[in-house]
Amino acid sequence: VDFQKIIAVATKRGIFQPAFDAYGGLAGFLDYGPVGVRMRRRILEVWRKHYVINAGCLELDGALIGPEALFQASGHLGEFDDALVDCNECGKQFRADHLVENGEDMSRTDLAKAITNVVCPNCSSTLSEMSAFNLMFSTSVGAGKGTLGYLRPETAQSIFLAFPWLLRQNRGKLPFAGAQIGRSFRNEISPRQGPLRMREFTQMEVEHFFLPTNEPALSSELKNTKINLLPANGKERQITIGEAFDS
Ligand SMILES: [Zn+2]
């Protein structure tokens, strides 16, 4: 796919454009134009009607900035990171899992071993040792030195955090589902052009809560419904929802 063409058409038709173009641009951020806003809103409305309203979910709109202690407790500060290598000659930076075959499926230890056999794709020089880069945007909350905070990297966490509150809203009864549509932020090392792998993006998410002893059963109609899944290896496969639950 030629993304330059897609971006040119999207810009011309008022769908979206790369943000901050007048100041040299900032990769991973988009502005939605008059047509794009309507398209986006329509998609969100259809999704919300089907998955939130008709399904009777409890809806949440969580805060976008969270305190450091939260992300320490959830493990985002220790684990929500990408493995990076630098070129010792030209200084370019790469995601290690992009330079190794099947790198995205490897453990960090295996990846660190495999990357020692790889040279810089740009200038063929040697690469640095692998280091970790956290994907969360940090910010300072309040005046002076302030308190360290982070922009949320996902919407799921707000729903989990609000679980006791939502449970009370549901009169203490399980099962129920919490839903949220909202923005999330990830400081991606290599954002793609156009609306793929953005640094600021919208997520639509539902989390179901039920007792393990009272697991909701799938109807036979749902069980036998065929869906196409696209696993991380990029090879699309068709399976039934029942098979997906069992695998
Ligand atoms: Zn290089």
TrEMBL record:
<keyword id="KW-0030">Aminoacyl-tRNA synthetase</keyword>
<keyword id="KW-0547">Nucleotide-binding</keyword>
<dbReference type="InterPro" id="IPR045864">
    <property type="entry name" value="aa-tRNA-synth_II/BPL/LPL"/>
</dbReference>
<dbReference type="Pfam" id="PF00587">
    <property type="entry name" value="tRNA-synt_2b"/>
</dbReference>
<keyword id="KW-0067">ATP-binding</keyword>
<dbReference type="InterPro" id="IPR027031">
    <property type="entry name" value="Gly-tRNA_synthase/POLG2"/>
</dbReference>
<dbReference type="GO" id="GO:0005524">
    <property type="term" value="F:ATP binding"/>
</dbReference>
<dbReference type="GO" id="GO:0004820">
    <property type="term" value="F:glycine-tRNA ligase activity"/>
</dbReference>
<dbReference type="GO" id="GO:0005737">
    <property type="term" value="C:cytoplasm"/>
</dbReference>
<dbReference type="GO" id="GO:0006426">
    <property type="term" value="P:glycyl-tRNA aminoacylation"/>
</dbReference>
<protein>
    <recommendedName>
        <fullName>glycine--tRNA ligase</fullName>
        <ecNumber>6.1.1.14</ecNumber>
    </recommendedName>
</protein>
<dbReference type="InterPro" id="IPR002314">
    <property type="entry name" value="aa-tRNA-synt_IIb"/>
</dbReference>
<keyword id="KW-0436">Ligase</keyword>
<feature type="domain" description="Aminoacyl-transfer RNA synthetases class-II family profile">
    <location>
        <begin position="2"/>
        <end position="215"/>
    </location>
</feature>
<dbReference type="InterPro" id="IPR002315">
    <property type="entry name" value="tRNA-synt_gly"/>
</dbReference>
<dbReference type="InterPro" id="IPR006195">
    <property type="entry name" value="aa-tRNA-synth_II"/>
</dbReference>
